[in-house]
Design a protein that fits this description.
Elements lengths: L1 H25 L14 H29 L6 H7 L9 H33 L8 H15 L7 H46 L5 H28 L4 H22 L6 H19 L16 H20 L1 H6 L3 H14 L25 H18 L8 H20 L5 E2 L2 E2 L2 H31 L7
Antiparallel strand pairs: 1-2
Family: Belongs to the TDE1 family.
Keywords: Membrane, Transmembrane, Transmembrane helix
InterPro entries: TDE1/TMS
């Protein structure tokens, strides 16, 4: 009894300390500092918290949930909460799968709620996203603990499941923007290196251009092989056949549209095509029709691993990519930052030459002499001071909105979009059908949007597309 009292007292002290710290930050009682923390500090701590929540979700799903189901009468209160809505299943393994899914929903619901309040706080106080992080981590941990004692139905197994589906669809759209942005960064970096190598030695830049083409060929090759595997394993019904055919047609259309114009880059198109193939696999593997889904009732480890990989890529871009900060800024802030940089510079703009051309590049790059590089270093210092301007934090709510969608995607990726499977049986096949249509509809949307970005400048040449 004394040990329990000690634990409860310590936990209560931590909780009260965290609340006091958070309240102090919200009321503006932080200590003054002549050197403000980096504008990206809150962004990275948010991303790290979501990585922490993924680890907790896996522990809840594969550790805590099975242990609670197998627990004795001493923990019957908690067991009843975790098996609420799962007792209809006879097989104990199915019950554990159901409880495990709800364990993921608990952690994901906590992170979704956390980032929802973080977004609200960022709207009310722009600097809130980079303050009081020890308190925020503590409060998130306690929020996850509280969910342990809440019944599954209807909060987790019904309400949050549907919320997570919608949020995961939004993530699919956002993830395409992430993939395109990363592909452009990758492409632009290698084109710049090709230009620099070409300036030093004629013909040496072709190696970097060849590397870009090789990466594109590898991505297209992997995508085509994956399409072949999907076609060989998941055909047999009209639904899957249609999904695979539409994916292939839209993928070829994207490549054809990109190759026939100067919009975008071949590397971005290759990445988008690979993303669409993954979504196609995710959709057909959810089909509850056993005649065209040999994986029905099995744990789809491939989807879970790929889903977590996609989540990690998205979180890495959100937390550490320089262009992610630009995407989270408003146009007015971009204009202010550009004006500040321009005022600090004494040099006029100089023309740059393009050494590598064609559909592979997508951007112009030139070389810099020593004087230009020195000026660029000066610009970087100015940019850093602009980046740390608190007025630029007014759109940090966008970051939290994105992380809300990532939380929802994480829940769907770990639970196979809500499917309860064990011993080769799908306990709720209707859930798989809903997930299937939501994923494939999202795929059609993102492919159509990307195809539009390639065709719109040609269809409407007098309009500006930024």
């Amino acid at each position: 009894a004394s040990l329990v009292t000690c634990v409860i007292t310590s936990a209560g002290w931590c909780f009260c300390t965290a609340c006091a710290s958070l309240l102090g930050a919200c009321c503006g009682n932080d200590k003054a500092s002549t050197i403000p923390p980096s504008v990206t500090s809150g962004r990275r701590r948010s991303v790290l918290l979501l990585f922490f929540s993924i680890a907790m979700a896996l522990v809840f799903q594969y550790g805590i949930a099975p242990a609670i189901v197998d627990a004795n009468d001493l923990t019957s209160f908690v067991r009843d909460k975790w098996t609420d809505g799962c007792s209809q299943y006879v097989d104990i393994d199915v019950v554990k799968s159901c409880a495990g899914n709800n364990g993921v929903y608990r952690v994901s619901a906590a992170s979704t709620l956390f980032f929802a309040f973080a977004a609200l706080g960022a709207l009310l106080k722009p600097t809130a996203n980079r303050e009081a992080w020890p308190a925020k981590y503590t409060l998130y941990f306690f929020l996850c603990i509280v969910t342990i004692f809440i019944p599954n139905d209807p909060l987790f197994s019904d309400a949050y499941l549907n919320i997570a589906r919608i949020g995961a669809v939004l993530f699919i759209v956002v993830q395409q923007l992430v993939i395109v942005d990363m592909a452009h960064e990758w492409n632009d970096s290698w084109v710049a290196k090709a230009d620099a190598a070409e300036a030093q030695e004629a013909g040496s830049g072709k190696r970097w251009l060849g590397a870009i083409v090789t990466a594109c060929i590898m991505l297209f090759g992997i995508s085509i092989i994956a399409i072949g595997v999907i076609f060989s394993r998941f055909t047999g019904c009209g639904t899957n056949n249609g999904f695979i055919t539409v994916t292939l047609v839209l993928g070829v259309s994207i490549v054809g549209a990109q190759m026939s114009g100067e919009e975008g880059s071949l590397l971005a198109s290759a990445c988008v095509f690979a993303w669409s193939v993954f979504l196609c696999y995710t959709a057909v593997s959810k089909n509850p029709d056993a005649s065209c889904n040999p994986m029905l009732g099995e744990m789809d480890t491939v989807s879970i691993v790929l889903g977590l990989t996609v989540t990690a890529i998205s979180l890495g871009w959100t937390g550490w990519s320089y262009t992610a900060e630009d995407k989270l800024r408003s146009s007015s802030e971009e204009e202010s930052a550009a004006a500040a940089t321009a005022r600090a510079s004494d040099d006029s703009e100089k023309d740059v030459r393009r050494d590598v051309t064609g559909v592979v590049t997508g951007n112009d790059y030139g070389t810099q002499d020593d004087e230009e590089q020195a000026n660029s270093a000066g610009h970087a210092e100015v940019d850093e001071s602009v980046l740390n301007n608190p007025s630029r934090l007014s759109n940090s709510w966008k970051l939290n909105a994105i992380l809300m969608s990532v939380s929802c995607w994480k829940a769907m990726a770990l639970t196979n979009w809500g499917a309860i499977v064990a011993n080769g049986n799908a306990a709720n096949p209707q859930v798989g059908r809903v997930g299937m249509w939501m994923v494939i509809a999202s795929q059609w949307l993102v492919l159509t949007l990307y195809l539009w970005t390639l065709l719109a400048p040609r269809l409407f040449p007098n309009r500006e597309f930024g």
